[in-house]
Write a structure and sequence with these properties.
Length: 609
């Protein structure tokens, strides 16, 4: 009887002009539960391997070396410079088979295809549709046992504990079916939230996870990475610690957790037993590989050469551009070094507050710096705090919204400016681009109330927290920077608390010091105007004892000041009222002490005899 199993083909990197490798998926199951795969005799193979292949994929490398030593994989007479199989070779999984031929890791469930391009995964029953995904499955502390070291790595498996779940639960079970089973089988032994969580984990492990998916786990400070190579099975295990299992081809070495990219650490910190890591899969795929090796991988799977490999895009490092003389001149800052220090503070702490008296240009400087460092206004969002501002306004909460079809108003979960900007910054392809949130008047709100659990994330960017309203696991992207401004003359609220001071770098903008003290004089020179307004402002601030109430130069850097009568009008309507409030109840004659006439008279000095 002829073999009716479909034949699959594999294209080799740089294999133009040679045949494709051929093979079939076998019904026989390997020792760890994977479906075996047979490579046909005469299939070509590369004559070299990826440099890191022997380190990270030692099992496949050794299998290839044994085939060469046994004369099964030998130099080809048909294709000079290539190898060729002299006989059929049975492999433990499609990915193992592909790796032997390519000399590099390869997802066999996608790489092996029929003649008309259908991937091998399409021929598996009960498999969740769609592209391959990445998963975290925790196993270092299952009822006190480290299953990663005891079971998963040595036996090439991954497992999930479901001790009370009845036998006979099949791969591909729907979430509704699992919800019913968990409710019946766990009854009063689990809380409502525990049962909800278990349903999600079971559905991910049994139904969404599929052969070819990447699976990760953490043990002993190391991240271990493997590939799911077969279907789920339910077995009887001691204490039910590992009664749901899947076969996995683990890489030979782990990766130090502390050296992983910050975005990957954020997702790995999510506190669930099964976590979808697909959003950071490019970072996982790039671990242990050079850019050249990743480029070779892209060529091997016939990726469009005009499109950058996702793993290379994902590892592009975040950078803040270096301020130069041109920016200093544009902002009328006295020194490029001062701007570079601001940039370095942002790079180190991610959060910074510009504080000082009114009129010192805090908001203007924050916006201009953010636009320069972020590459444009599209990466900058501004929000102004006020006493009634809340967490719901700032991050997310239920807000009344009208349905455009029914015209009925209902409360719906709505993202605030921080959530919107964080979502934009964390999009794939955006993670190397700086994004800035400007919080104007940051000290006018109840900061503990507004920030809520985000206090923690400001300090620990590599962690995630469960959100109050949506229940999502959320982390602040590493490319999101926060610049706050604070008016120190506002006596209606208290200064920021110690928790905020620890999380922000504070930079003073004061008329006493540069870059503020000489700003008006530089602006007047640039505009070609006389220096009298700068002299008057210096004289005014010299008479104000408290530094927090000195007047900034911004009041006198507007066109209206230099129309006829403009200086007097600005002094009378904007500057003197501030000083009236400052000296309220003290009996100070504001006009006599701070008025223009008094300052000009003092500048002239005593009359000559």
């Amino acid at each position: 009887m002829p073999d009716e199993r479909p034949e699959f083909q594999l294209r080799l990197p740089g294999g133009d002009g040679i045949d494709r490798a051929r093979g079939v998926l076998l019904d026989e199951i390997g020792t760890n539960g994977s479906r075996k795969f047979l490579i046909r005799a005469g299939s070509p193979a590369r004559d070299h391997v990826m440099p890191s292949f022997s380190k990270h994929f030692n099992g496949t490398f050794q299998g290839r070396e044994k085939l060469k030593a046994d004369g099964v994989l030998q130099p080809s007479t048909r294709w000079p410079g290539w190898l060729e199989l002299a006989e059929d070779v049975e492999c433990g999984s499609p990915s193992f088979a592909a790796g032997v031929l390519v000399g590099a890791p390869r997802n066999g469930w996608v790489a092996w295809k029929t003649a008309d391009g259908a991937p091998l995964s399409d021929f598996m029953d009960g498999v969740w549709p769609g592209p391959n995904q990445a998963w975290l499955v925790r196993g270092s502390n299952v009822s006190g046992s480290d299953l990663v070291q005891r079971l998963w790595l040595p036996e090439k498996r991954v497992s999930l504990s479901a001790a009370r779940l009845r036998q006979g639960v099949a791969q591909g079970a729907s979430k509704d079916r699992l919800r019913t089973l968990v409710e019946e089988d766990y009854g009063s032994t689990a809380t409502y939230n525990q049962k909800l969580e278990l349903v999600e984990e079971l559905h991910a492990f049994l139904s969404r996870m599929k052969p070819g998916d990447t699976v990760c786990s953490i043990s002993g400070g190391q991240l271990y990475i493997g590939e799911v190579t077969g279907a789920a099975e339910q077995v009887i295990s001691e204490g039910g610690r590992s009664n749901l299992r899947r076969p996995v081809e683990w890489q030979s070495t782990g990766y130090a957790y502390d050296e992983l990219p910050e975005e990957l650490q954020q997702k790995l910190s999510v506190q669930h037993d099964v976590v979808d890591l697909t959003v950071v899969q490019p970072l996982i795929d790039g671990l242990g590989l050079t850019d050249q090796e990743l480029a070779d991988e892209a060529e091997a799977i016939e990726r469009d050469p005009s499109v950058e490999t996702p793993a290379i895009t994902a590892r592009r490092e975040l950078e803040l551009p270096e301020p130069g003389e041109e920016l200093a001149a544009d902002l009328l800052v006295h020194s490029v070094d001062w701007l570079r220090e601001i940039r370095d503070l942002l790079w180190d702490d991610r959060q910074l507050v510009l504080y000082g008296p009114p009129g010192t240009g805090k908001t203007f400087l924050a916006l201009k710096l953010a636009e320069f460092l972020g590459g444009g206004p599209e990466q900058v969002k501004l929000v102004q705090f006020h006493p009634s501002y809340s967490y719901e306004d700032f991050f997310e909460g239920f807000r009344p919204q009208e349905d455009p079809e029914t015209r009925k108003v209902a409360f719906r979960l709505t993202a605030g400016p921080l959530r919107e900007l964080a979502d934009l910054a964390s999009r794939e392809g955006n993670r190397h681009i700086p994004h800035f949130l400007i919080i104007d008047e940051i000290n006018r709100a109840n900061l503990a109330k507004v920030f809520g659990e985000l206090y923690f994330l400001l300090e620990y960017r590599n962690k995630s927290v469960r959100l109050t309203y949506s229940g999502d696991d959320f982390a602040l992207p590493s490319n999101l920077f926060v610049i706050g401004t604070m008016n120190t003359a506002d006596r209606s609220i208290a200064l920021v608390d110690a928790a905020m001071r620890r999380r922000f770098a504070f930079v003073e903008l004061s008329p006493r010091t540069e870059p503020t003290s000489g700003l008006l004089r530089r602006w007047l020179a640039k505009e070609g105007r006389e220096s009298e307004p700068a002299d008057l402002l210096d004289a005014l601030n010299h008479r104000i004892d408290e530094a927090d109430f000195r007047i900034g130069p911004s009041y006198l850097m507007k066109r209206g000041v230099y129309r006829e009568g403009g200086l007097e009008r600005t002094w009378r309507t904007k500057i003197l009222p501030l000083l009236e409030e400052h000296h309220y109840g003290e009996g100070v004659d504001i006009e006599q002490r701070y008025g223009l006439a008094a300052l000009r008279k003092a500048a002239e000095g005593p009359a000559s005899p």
